Amino acid sequence: MLPFTYAIRNLFRDPTRLAQTVGGSALVVILLIAAVALNQGMSSVLSASGSPQNVVILGKGSEESIERSEVHLEAEAIISTAIRGLDEQLGVAAVSGEIFYQAPLKSSSGVENQALLRGVFEKSLLVHTSVRLLVGHFPGPGEVMVGRLAHRKMGIDAASFAVGKNVYFGKSDLRIVGVFEAPGTVLESEVWFDRNDLASLTQRNTLSAVVLRLDRAEFDDVHAFTLQRNDLELAAIPEDKYYEKLSLFYQPIKVMTWVTAALVAAGSIFGGLNTLYAAFASRIREMATLQSIGYTRMALMVSLIQESLLATLTGTLLAFLAAYFLLDGQTIPFSVGTFILTLTPTVIITGLVSGLLLGTLGTLPPAIRCLSPSLPHALRSS
């Protein structure tokens, strides 16, 4: 085997080629890291938003979109008494009739953008158990409570959504009286109104959905209730299944993320292959000379792979540094919420494996071409 120092020395024979290899591999790796982090972040926030203990009751025919659903106001009280085995706290059934609405909201800084609005009463906390007030109190008439990431969804700074600030919906102004968290869920991107306020402002006399939390009851009990009460025209779906279906709706976006990353990465890979072909072609006589003094082609192949791995893993390290400072912890808004990019073990392993594959599989074609000529022919090459 050739000494490892031989591969290290060869790296610096052509600084331009070294920079191209390191830069190309860094670009490929950071694109893959970004694609995996984006897809994983979106999938994880949607999967975490639904609880298997919760059931969402919607208007029949609106199972795909909670915003288009309409449920009679009296359904909330009927559900509370008709379905046995629901979770209770201090004698209050965990049943929450809610209004969902997406509309422009203006912040105190004057920025107007689409926001996710939810009209609720305080008992909604019985079903949304991940919600925790960070500061302030639950909203009453003329007040709202905002998720800690709602300002990112709006594209404004956090100070504009602080307690004591005002927000404007239509011609009405409402005071922010609380900030809440619901880690890892889309709830953190929402603005919660008093339900009566939102119903009045949107001129609605129906609910969007009724969310309930099971205790001894099972989903089949809720489903049977919706079938028995044809007059209410209801449909039931487990909350985690609803968000799972929502995740499938965003599948084309995830595919496009992969396609875009793959196209850019392919261009970089082909550029790197051309660089390696040119570099190794100029070393055919050198490789032949080493063979003539006793080194096998396999030993030379290993040395070339070592040389390439040093360059690509350096690029991978640079990609990880860039991802740590530029991507990790960044919040990305999308239509139903916001998710955070995180360098999870899966993302890190994906980047590391891609760097290793670039340095090994990407080196094989030019290395084989460099070592394939017969010894006499290679020694005569210029």
What does this structure look like?
The structure is a single chain. The chain has 13 helices and 14 strands. It is an alpha+beta fold and 382 residues long. The protein has two domains: 4-48 and 250-380, no CATH class; 61-232, no CATH class. Strands 1, 4, 5, 6, 7, 8, 9, 10, 11 and 12 form a ten-stranded mixed β-sheet that branches. Strands 2-3 form a two-stranded antiparallel sheet. The chain is elongated, with a radius of gyration of 30 Å.
Layout: helices, strands, pairs:
Elements lengths: L3 H8 L3 H35 L4 E6 L14 H9 L5 E2 L2 E2 L1 E12 L5 E9 L11 E5 L6 E5 L2 H5 L11 E4 L2 E10 L8 E5 H7 L7 E5 L5 H10 L5 E5 H11 L1 H31 L2 H9 L4 H30 L4 E4 L2 E4 L4 H16 L3 H8 L3 H6 L2
Parallel strand pairs: 5-10, 7-9
Antiparallel strand pairs: 1-11, 1-12, 2-3, 4-5, 4-11, 6-9, 7-10, 8-9, 13-14
At a glance:
The protein is an alpha+beta fold and 382 residues long. It has 13 helices and 14 strands. The protein is elongated.
Question: How many angstroms separate the termini?
Answer: 26 Å
Low-confidence stretches: none
* Average pLDDT reading: 86
What is the tally of beta strands?
A: 14
Helix-strand makeup class:
alpha+beta
Listing every helix as H and every strand as E from the N terminus to the C terminus, the arrangement reads HHEHEEEEEEHEEEHEHEHHHHEEHHH
Q: What portion of residues is helical? A: 40-55%
How would you characterize the largest beta sheet? 10 strands, mixed
The number of helices is: 13
**How would you describe the oligomerization state of the chains in this entry?**
single chain
Shape: elongated
